[in-house]
Amino acid sequence: MPASIPMLIENSHKPEKPSIDIQVPQKEKLALTPAEAAELLGMSVNSVYRLLHEGKIPSVKLGMERKFLIPRGELIKILTSGEIIK
């Protein structure tokens, strides 16, 4: 038997190290979905979509499905401006 074969056999019988589940805090998202924005704004998802289509909430459309993403900074501006959005 070549010298490398016994080594492979020896290594195959070693028990695997137990996996450690480490909780990493999720980073703050730069952009939110309409559902996430609705929750943050305290309004319905339908109302957010209406405001998106009317251009009252700035957004970006990404991907093949052209899904809306709303920049977090824009929502913060809306919330802190005191401006009423209808």
Q: Radius of gyration from the CA trace? A: 25 Å
* Low-confidence sequence ranges: none
- N-to-C series of helices and strands: HEHHEEH
Could you give a short account of the major beta sheet? 3 strands, antiparallel
Provide mean pLDDT, rounded: 78
Q: What is the straight-line distance between the termini? A: 81 Å
CATH class label of one domain: Mainly Alpha
Just name the CATH architecture of one domain: Orthogonal Bundle
Number of helical regions: 4
Alpha-beta content class: alpha+beta
Which descriptor suits the 3D outline? elongated
Strand order of the largest sheet: 1-3-2
At the third CATH level, what is the topology name of one domain? Answer: Multidrug-efflux Transporter Regulator, Chain: A, Domain 2
Number of strands: 3
Strand content: 5-15%
Helix content: 40-55%
Write up what this structure looks like.
This protein is α+β, with helices and mostly antiparallel strands. The protein has a domain at 29-81: Orthogonal Bundle (Multidrug-efflux Transporter Regulator, Chain: A, Domain 2), CATH 1.10.1660. Helices cover 42% and strands 12% of the residues. It is built from 4 helices and 3 strands; from the N terminus they run αβααββα. It has helices at residues 4-12, 34-41, 45-53, 72-81; strands spanning 31-32, 60-62, 67-71. It has a 3-stranded antiparallel β-sheet with strand order 1-3-2. The relative contact order is 0.14.
Explain the layout of strands and helices.
Blueprint: H1 4-12, E1 31-32, H2 34-41, H3 45-53, E2 60-62, E3 67-71, H4 72-81
Antiparallel strand pairs: 1-3, 2-3
Helix pairs in contact: 2-3
